[in-house]
Amino acid sequence: MAPHLRWLFLQFLLLLLEFSSAAQAQGNITLGSSLTPQGPNSSWLSPSGDFAFGFRPVEGNTSSYLLAVWFDKISEKTVAWYAKSSSDGQESPVQVPSSSVLQLRDDGLLSLRNPSGDEVWSPQAPSAAYARMLDTGNFRLVGADGKAKWETFDVPADTILPTQVLPVGQQDKVLRSRLIPTDYANGRFLLVVQPDGNLVFYPIAEHSTFQYDPYWASNTVGNGSRLVFNETGRVYFTVKNGTQINITSAGVNSMGDFFNRATLDPDGVFRQYLYPKSSMVRNVWSSRWTAVSSIPQDICQAISVKAGSGACGFNSYCTFDGTKNQTSCLCPQRYKFFDNERPDFVPQSCDLDEEAAMAEFEMTLINSVDWPQSDYEQYSPIDETECRRLCVIDCFCATAVFQASTNTCWKKKLPLSNGNMAESVDRTVLIKVPRSNNTQSQPSSGSSKWKKDKKYWILGSSLFFGSSVLLNLLLISILLFGTYCGISITSKKKLQSPQSSGSSILPPKIFTYNELEKATSGFHEVLGSGASGTVYKGQLQDEHPTSIAVKKIEKLQQETEKEFMVEVQTIGQTFHKNLVRLLGFCNEGTDRLLVYEFMTNGSLNEFLFGDARPHWSLRVQVALGVARGLLYLHEECSTQIIHCNIKPQNILLDDNFMAKIADFGLAKLLRANQTQTYTGIRGTRGYVAPEWFKNIGITSKVDVYSFGVILLELVCCRRNVELEIADEERSILTYWANDCYRCGRIDLLVEGDDEANFNIKKAERFVAVALWCLQEEPTMRPTMLKVTQMLDGAVQIPTPPDPSSFISSLP
Ligand SMILES: *[C@@H]1O[C@H](CO)[C@@H](O)[C@H](O)[C@H]1NC(C)=O
Ligand SMILES: *[C@@H]1O[C@H](CO)[C@@H](O)[C@H](O)[C@H]1NC(C)=O
Ligand SMILES: *[C@@H]1O[C@H](CO)[C@@H](O)[C@H](O)[C@H]1NC(C)=O
Ligand SMILES: *[C@@H]1O[C@H](CO)[C@@H](O)[C@H](O)[C@H]1NC(C)=O
Ligand SMILES: *[C@@H]1O[C@H](CO)[C@@H](O)[C@H](O)[C@H]1NC(C)=O
Ligand SMILES: *[C@@H]1O[C@H](CO)[C@@H](O)[C@H](O)[C@H]1NC(C)=O
Ligand SMILES: *[C@@H]1O[C@H](CO)[C@@H](O)[C@H](O)[C@H]1NC(C)=O
Ligand SMILES: *[C@@H]1O[C@H](CO)[C@@H](O)[C@H](O)[C@H]1NC(C)=O
Ligand SMILES: *[C@@H]1O[C@H](CO)[C@@H](O)[C@H](O)[C@H]1NC(C)=O
Ligand SMILES: *[C@@H]1O[C@H](CO)[C@@H](O)[C@H](O)[C@H]1NC(C)=O
Ligand SMILES: *[C@@H]1O[C@H](CO)[C@@H](O)[C@H](O)[C@H]1NC(C)=O
């Protein structure tokens, strides 16, 4: 018994202490009394000391005070009411400096004056005889007749308290949310007891009172009566016929043990909160505000208006955890909540051409998120790859939303609004972000990434997952970041494409055979094999694990060792976004290996001749990419490199389907003398220029010829040589394309390809360029510079001469 008694005694002492601290409680506040923000008389307490009316310092501004009613017994001093003044039809919280004075004047009027003596606030009320701070949290001006002339319960801010009633009546009874918990400025939500009898929740445009479509309503037009916060801990809306529509409920009927409030929070949710009053209860309940009931339950789903930001602010997204009744606001990866200093915002320049855009930006993925608004373009049917690409190359596009079940893609611009994440959202959001230079080592599994960013805010929580901690989190993040997300780019350097940044041009690394054997798990996975050797997949275990392709060169003679080193150095210093990059090599005894960056999307061979026809725009992009890569090899790098083996198998695609030429620079290694007649034809049937079969010098024009073949294949999505085609005229594409071109029937070449038909002029231009490249006489063929200009449409394309003579010389 003894310990138990001692415990009770302790509780009793604590209760005594609590009461002694409330000893200053006022009864009647007489005329002539005044308050100042600083000094002993800064507030008037209610008899119980539960509530105080007076000046509250504004968080984050020591020289600014709010005129407010607050819970005085709890350490947070939670504000339940604050004065607002209106100017130009806009209400805003009254905030005054420290030497302001609030006085209940001798004439019975309450008046707040700033240090210069100007009245900054006064309730619209007739003369009072005295004032009282009531134990309900209501501050009242009482007339000589003993009747209330004005009370804070009449003009609620964002909170209502037990016994408070908002009747349907002469004037709108409105709760307006704060902007954020620490900023009492007008927020983005309204709760209105309308004169027409309807109780309605509205999102509103910031800095205005414009109301969007409601996100909740009682639907009691003509019949609604009043919103009641009953002292039993229940908030309901009464209807004239006597029915009560439940809004929220404490769930515990012990008002004596808890402080109670219901607040329209900054996220638009109306939540009822409890705080344990007595020390007894505090042994069970944590000393903090706990949300026990809320409406609407899932704000993320509730708001769906065409304008406005939604629950979380622009560019963020909302997620509701039903197990905890908790709403969180998150920023997408590479975005962060705004702070006062604007982030280093580098939007995509509209001057970038398609390829530059692809080089500088990429799309990262978040599943199960949607921003239902801000669409400006829709595509269907379409695949995800094309959806990504169309957004990357469009400077207006900030994100694309892809729905796999309907093959639909929506392009969206900033700011994004009404973001919502839920398992039921059957969409994938692709967010445009600047490329980092080692994309291959960063798996783009969206979800794991955003979890790392601890930049979010949370409101509301269940009974026992106290809300205060979470609310503090909100306070902290809101204080620092505000309510909007902005794109955050930590380093401008990341925006530069690897090719343009001088520091990335490192000499190729020398690997040991053992290292590469380990990296490829003993040359286990074969990616492909050709005349020059076999290619294996591997993984470098550096600080950033990088996927690699390791080429084992087979037909290399011992005496070419010196040449190998020279060539490898040349290849290793050849950088272009349309060339596969050589990362390193191995030269041990007879083992010669080249280590390349790994290209995730395979070769043009699979891309073009696979089951599904790739999109026209993607094919155009590949054509331009290959042309630029060849132009670089032929004319722009320090020593001219003739590829000699341009074919679809040697054109690889990265994860954004950027074309990259592989195997360049190997021609010299594999042949003793490039200008000699080539005897053992390496090239693949259908791609080699006629001069290979003649005794004339080999020049860069052999690559131009091969490019011409590939260009036709890209336009028509078929192999140059398809002998199995029944219609013999069509079995060799280069002949057939020439025939079609001469007859003005390009449409036959792209039969059944709606996209290409839609772009038939461009298709015709590409065929014309191809026919120029396929000229029998090498000198007649254009240079790659000319080819790129013709493809771009920068120069006129003369009608190509009929190259029918080449028929005789094709293999
Ligand atoms: C407050 O003033 C009213 C009216 O003068 C009076 O009836 C009441 O007893 C006073 N209450 C207190 C606690 O002084
Ligand atoms: C504070 O208020 C009390 C009671 O109204 C009054 O007696 C006292 O003089 C005031 N103190 C100051 C510093 O104004
Ligand atoms: C603090 O509040 C005063 C008005 O009371 C205002 O003039 C001042 O700009 C505020 N300071 C900050 C840092 O917000
Ligand atoms: C008001 O209530 C009555 C009786 O319940 C009902 O018939 C009527 O439709 C209601 N009015 C509106 C506008 O809902
Ligand atoms: C609260 O409910 C009780 C019983 O239902 C009722 O008597 C009382 O008037 C209600 N309070 C308010 C403020 O409506
Ligand atoms: C009272 O009115 C409400 C709304 O108008 C309606 O939903 C409810 O059924 C009515 N109840 C009765 C008992 O008439
Ligand atoms: C409203 O809540 C009260 C108390 O929790 C309950 O008795 C009543 O049935 C509820 N009314 C409705 C319509 O759900
Ligand atoms: C969440 O809220 C609903 C409705 O207010 C309630 O029924 C449910 O028990 C709550 N869940 C938790 C975990 O608090
Ligand atoms: C990008 O490349 C630069 C220079 O090569 C390097 O310093 C930087 O760490 C790289 N950034 C990333 C994200 O890998
Ligand atoms: C292309 O790469 C992307 C991203 O790595 C991948 O999702 C897609 O499946 C790849 N497509 C093909 C055809 O390999
Ligand atoms: C290549 O062969 C040509 C003609 O046969 C000759 O003139 C030239 O010197 C040779 N070059 C080399 C590097 O062997």
Automatic annotation (TrEMBL):
Kinase among the record's keywords?
Answer: yes
Which Gene3D superfamilies does the record associate with it? 2.90.10.30, Bulb-type lectin domain, Phosphorylase Kinase, domain 1, Transferase(Phosphotransferase) domain 1
Signal peptide region: 1-25
A GO molecular function held by the record:
protein serine/threonine kinase activity
Which residues are involved in binding ATP? 552
- Which GO biological process categories is it annotated with? response to other organism
EC number per UniProt: 2.7.11.1
UniProt catalytic activity: L-threonyl-[protein] + ATP = O-phospho-L-threonyl-[protein] + ADP + H(+); L-seryl-[protein] + ATP = O-phospho-L-seryl-[protein] + ADP + H(+)
Residues annotated as domain Bulb-type lectin: 20-154
One Pfam match, by short name?
A: B_lectin
Q: Where is it located?
A: Membrane
Record has Transmembrane as a keyword: yes
* Topological category with respect to the lipid bilayer: Single-pass type I membrane protein
Top class in the EC scheme: transferase
- Boundaries of each Protein kinase domain copy? 521-807
Cellular component terms, GO, for this chain's entry?
Answer: membrane
Q: Which domain of life is it from?
A: Eukaryota
| UniProt record similarity statement | Belongs to the protein kinase superfamily. Ser/Thr protein kinase family.
What name does UniProt use for this protein? Receptor-like serine/threonine-protein kinase
Record organism: Aegilops tauschii subsp. strangulata
